[in-house]
Amino acid sequence: MRRLAARVLAAVLEQGHGLDRALAQQPLVGRTRAAVMDLSYGALRRLGLIDFLLDRLLTHPLRDAELRHLLRVGLGELLAGQSPAYAVVDQTVTAAPARARGLVNAVLRNFLRRREALLVAAQDDAVARWNHPRWWIERLQIEYPQDWQAILAADQAHPPMTLRVNRRRIDPQAYLRHLNAAGLQAEQIGECALRLEKPVPVSRLPGFAAGWVSVQDLGAQYAAPLLDCRDGMRVLDACAAPGGKAAHLLERHDLDLTAVDADARRLVRVRDNLDRLGLVARLVAGDAGRPQTWWDARPYDRILLDAPCTASGVVRRHPDGLWLKRAEDATGLARRQGELLDALWPLLAPGGKLLYATCSLFAQENRAVVAAFLERHPQAMEEPLVIPGARHGQLLPDAHHDGFFYARLVKT
Hints:
This protein has helices at residues 2-13, 19-24, 30-45, 47-57, 65-80, 85-95, 101-122, 126-130, 134-143, 148-156, 172-181, 218-221, 223-226, 244-252, 264-277, 320-324, 329-344, 367-376, and strands at 162-165, 186-188, 193-196, 213-215, 234-238, 256-261, 282-285, 300-306, 348-358, 380-383, 394-395, 404-411. It has 412 residues and is of the alpha/beta class. Strands 5, 6, 7, 8, 9, 10, 11 and 12 form an 8-stranded mixed beta sheet that branches. Strands 2-3-1-4 form a 4-stranded antiparallel beta sheet, with helices on one face. Helix 9 (134-143) packs across helix 10 (148-156).
């Protein structure tokens, strides 16, 4: 398991693969898959601290990348403290090549001896303390001078598991009783949102296969009510995969909904989700930025644009994003976001509304994109939004939800 986790880290940190893709490349099933996921996620969540420790535990630079990844896995497991330290050291040494077992043993045991002093020293290094790239920390300090520490702390916490109850099938309070009967504790935190006390596999959720409930963060659940739909409307969900927001819209209203995504393979997941929930939509494989290739020239009453972004608001769910993203990535993404808005705006009927959404915290992708769009389109007006806990449409990650941004634009 530790060797496999080291290979996953190599695929992410050397080859630039996303964590999901890196895990899919390994022969993982059942408990082995769960264990390798835990080891990989743990190492990536603590990577800043782990590399700080390695730099002080190694007497010479380590040229063997495979060995460095294995040491990252071992140190991540020791820092997590979920297994006895002697077992972690012994099994990590066993996983190492014979020629390097002495080194692995020495490094890990040296950490255990010097643990307290090293962890104190790490508090003076921003990357080690917060487990974020330095540029990321500095950007948050500038944009959120009062909140940057809370954001960084939230990013290192385990994310909540939140459910969205399908009100076409069951009432939230009734579903809460089913959860309690199954020995699962939860609380209602939104209109149809229930937050579980502890995450569980979806197979343990009552009625999941029957479409009673879906897994969706509370922040993402705000999209459907913010789009302000009514029964009978013609609605476009651009960049729709994996389909959670489209499904929520259809659970709330009877709509003529088209879901577009550039990746036909991801649309399969949208179809699977809709089928499980008993919902119907028109699925189109196409580029939202080139609607002339798929649009039927009939205007939409509502458009949801969940735009591609740095995903800086959801890194506690996707810690690989911290180490794969670069400071300059937001610039290219902001350009693409503006292009998508410009391309989709002509598809909106007069008086219609477009909801712009990202799971980013960076103003360059959010408020700045909306401001530039309003300058280019005098007939567009931004409507004020009421979102619990949000500031000017921006939600910050906390114990209840991830980080999201929303802006609603009206064609006057």
